[in-house]
Input
Amino acid sequence: MMNMNKKIILSLLGSAALFTTQAADTALINGAGSSFDFPAFTKWFEAYGKTEPNVRFNYQSIGSGAGKQRLKDQIVDFGASDAPMSDAELAAAPGKVLDIPVVAGGVAIIYNLPGDPKLKLDGDTLAAIYLGNINKWNDPKIAALNPGVSLPELTIVPVHRADGSGTSFIFTDYLSVVNPAWADSIGKGAVVKWPAAIGVASKGSEGVAGSVKQISGAIGYAELAYADQNKIPYADMKNSTGNFISPTPDSVSVALSTAKVPDDFRFSMVNAPGDKAYPISGVSWALVYQETKKADHAKPLVAFLKWAVTEGQKLSVQLDYAPLPDSIQQRELKMLETIK
Output
């Protein structure tokens, strides 16, 4: 179980982390986007502030899609997203955008059932639930994956994101890879057309976790930190080799170790090979312009990002994330040197 301090606990209940100071020479760095990596940013801002007291941060956890839009509109110094910039998004941006991986984590499949049984699920069953083809918890397909578990005749209430979400991107990317029916009908994206009249839409990972916790029979998806922090049970997922795996930092690290990471750092790692790889794993990116209009912000922003992808990774495991391997860290440091 993750041991998070009071400040992070409070942050998870809201939509923003704001650290300010009265010092006149303080640089305030503004960011917005992903709720997937919000717990990491919150802890990093606090830790970094102890070594660099003249840099403070205002980060709005408003979803990956909104973070990308605010970056495009040049409202913030950096965006954050669990879905990399697409070719179309890069072309539409007013300047060259760099995708800098900052965290890796598992998307936990969370649920609310009487007695909090430990469940096992696979991709086909999960897709059938979100397509509306499985709507009772005691369905034979769920029962077959969970012999010996008493499953209630309770309606399943799928919870999905209402906003543009990188976590949705990872989730739907996974379902598209493992389930042809999902790939053909829904597909992958930060925003998809969810099946009509099925389930509940909630804003942010905070909203999904809150809805699942409140609704008996609900199922949802959120980064592991939100499951642990809110004491919500989550399923072991069947991976590509047939093993049932929990979304731990170790199992995400196994998935990340198999990923082919291109020079622009835009990649997917869902349904990774490996006996111990968690199948719904992904990374989140900080999105920054290679050339910034705010010259006084460029230096402190780059310094922070260099710290985040190196020293900040030492805090990852205690926050339920997997640290980025040294090979990726070193490549990112070189990319960050190109920011002007």
